[in-house]
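User: Assemble these into one structure.

Assistant: Restating your components, then the assembled model:
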Amino acid sequence: MSSVPADVQLPDPETVLNEHSIQEIDEWLTRYPEERKQSAVLAALSIAQHQNQGWLSTELMDAVAAKLDMPPIAVYEVASFYSMFETKPVGRHCVAICTNISCMLMGSDNIVEHVQDKYGIKLGESTEDGRIYLKVEEECLAACAGGPMMQVDHVYHTQLTPQKVDEILDALD
Amino acid sequence: MSDDTIQITVDGTPLTAKRGQMLIEVTDAAGIDVPRFCYHKKLSIAANCRMCLVEVEKAPKPLPACATPCMPDMVVHTDSKVARDAQKGTMEFLLINHPLDCPICDQGGECELQDVAMGYGNGASQYTEGKRVVFDKYIGPLIATEMTRCIHCTRCVRFGEEIAGIRELGATGRGENVRIGTYIEKSVVSEVSGNVIDICPVGALTARPSRFTARAWELSQQPGVSPHDSVGSNIFIHMDGSTVNRVVPRDNESINEVWIADRDRFSYQGLSSSDRLGTPMVRVDGELQPTDWSTALAAAASKLKSGTLGVLTSASNTLEELYLSQKLGRALGSNNIDHRLGQTDFSAQDAAPVMPWLGMGFNDLETLDAALLIGSNIRKDQPIAALRLRKSAIKGAAISFINPRGFPLHFDAAEIITTRFDRMVTELYAVAKAAGADLSAMQDAPDVDTDERHERIAESLKQGERAAVFLGNLSVQHPDYSRLQFLANALARTTGATLAMLPERANTAGAWLAGAVPHREAGGVAIQGGNAGMDAGQLLDAPLQSYLLVGIEPELDAANPALAMKTLQASSGVVAISAFLSEGLKQVADVVLPAAAFTETFGTYVNATGNWQSSRGVTNPPGDARPAWKIFRVLASELELEGFEYNSPEEITRELQSRCGGIQLGNLTEFATVPGFAAARDAQLLRAGETPIYATDPVVRRSQPLQKSMDGKQAMASMAASVARELSLSEGDNASVRQNGLVVTLPVRIDDNVPDGCVWVPTGLPETAALGELFGTIEVSKA
């Protein structure tokens, strides 16, 4: 029983999501029962976000809603809840510095300050050239033994020092 | 004592409960007060506000009463120290971000948060940090938002999902950033959206039309009945002095439960419309001029006596007005009386039941196994009945439709047959044939092939233990109504399903009982000897010497508005009893007598289940306007007619009641003959349409908030993309829409719910009032 408002015109997923995204979402859909398509919402949003330089537009979320027979608001709820999803345009490299307890004890505040000064932006902002997005990392990234640590485009970097951070970030395109 | 019944103790009092029943239901039934915000008896349990925490012995910590099932010998304390501390703690947290703006909040004085804070809150907060602010988004003309006040109980979200069937509001963000809203700026589209105003425990969602106009404690409250659809929802009218400030639901489990439609809630805004009549008027030198009652009454009487009379009265009128309309007409020797202005096919009127009715109670709509709705946009036409039917659908009932276009539904239908209106009969014939119905009475029956859809519908109706075949508003307006009636009868008979009518207006059933039809008197007594009068179609086809229009707006109510206006204009004896002076009346009426409207007069409404519900006049009509029953009384005396000397409107109700004593209700009837089959009009572009939800009666038509809402904006020519391509039109273009030389310009809307070969142009709207028949041919081109 879906409660998709029938009065709402949703975009055709095929025109908004690219072929690769559709293929990947379809593959995820095979893992769930036909009437439980919404189980694939996290995967589908993640795929859609990849297609769009790391953020989800309303149109993309609507396309996911149409693809999964969900009310669009239910997709917005998921996208706005999880910190892995961005609902506003962001820089192309996602830099997330862990500031949870272990990293904090190991000096993550200095790392954050260093990166903020380096680019002249605050946590949650992107550089003007659209290169770096300094993500607010809400959760512990589960690499406590290597703190302070950060995640850059899904890659973990541990035992950070300001020098090491510079090397890593300067090497990005 | 059955196994299910158990004993629990609450605050030292032994109580009986059902095993597994939630504790809060038991304490509510026993009158023990447990504070709550998120719990609502009609919604699912969320247990997210934590306000109803109580102490349960042997439990390590306080438990939420709304989500704690009763167990045998449970001992509960609702006001022990543990319970109180928990409740006070929750209250303090809830108030952390709540603004202290009660003095400017519309909910002030009737706010659950305010009430509970009085009992459980502290005088001061320990919280010294900044409060959260939420910026509002516009969600439409009916609901005002002030989301900084929201405490995230999610009642409104659950209402959308579980009751209205349209999930429009949601909780986005997380933690402190959670907010309730639509995320994107959009108007909510549900036709029952206003109910979130009532269930919101704080001032986050309030009624926009009555915002900042009164304090709750200054309002007085009177019970009433909503006059806008055949549900007859029970309402409370809240008055600020002598004006209606707002309308809210009045609980009635057997009718509207605790909900009302937006139409019931916001229609009152139309009462003070600028074309409201406060003085009688007569036409002098071609212009309607204000005058006094005695001049107007004398003029009216002379018009009504001047020759053959036709009486047209609205099914939105009160039962008393309907009864007096026909009584006056018949006392003047005319049987030309009708309320069916929207109907075109009257050929089965002799076979019609005494009154059209649902054939069951509203609560039976929740337990159907199968249903077929023929020509019905039930969601917009009878919104509260549709909520009930939706419950059947959720339980798995096979609910199917045969409609002249696809309508947005709030449940999953089994089969939806969408076809051009001229093929609806064929489709229904196929279902009846698949069910094995006896269709031999139908002349020239075509050779119709049935397909799987027809068979599945027929099978579901046969298999369903509780099945029903419904005829909706669009069937009644359909040019082949009699054939649809015959086929629906045959189908219901052969499948054992109930034949259910969804009366179109608040008093459609009442109009039949009151005798507001040309062939039957009050109480459904047939007029003998070939003396039946002319029906509404004939009355508006060729002009008579005089007309009495009661609560009618001819350009909006008639099935063929252009023809109706032409006919009435050609008559020089049109007397109108009306609360409003519509554009059409302004052109055709020769005498206008100003009448009281909804809330201003006593009136009875007979709803779809045959329930007679009366509501009193609670405000005064403007100026010299008078309740219509009094107008009939003086008009009758002016005409020297006897039998109209009523001292109170209740006398009229009793008089009619005494004539309706022995009525047996039933929709199944015998058809002597059935008209031959009409051929599909293949090569032509057809017009089809409906009377949209906010165009059904004069009061609703004038309610600005409703007109500004999504459902109020219906003046469009909608067509499928393929049709638009053929006509070289695209979305938003202005199109010239022509019928028999009449032209109007309407914006184009591309809507693939409209079948091929067909353009959807609604009626009841000023923008389409210059057009002809609702179901007919049409020409459309770029303007």
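The longest strand of chain A covers residues 93-97.
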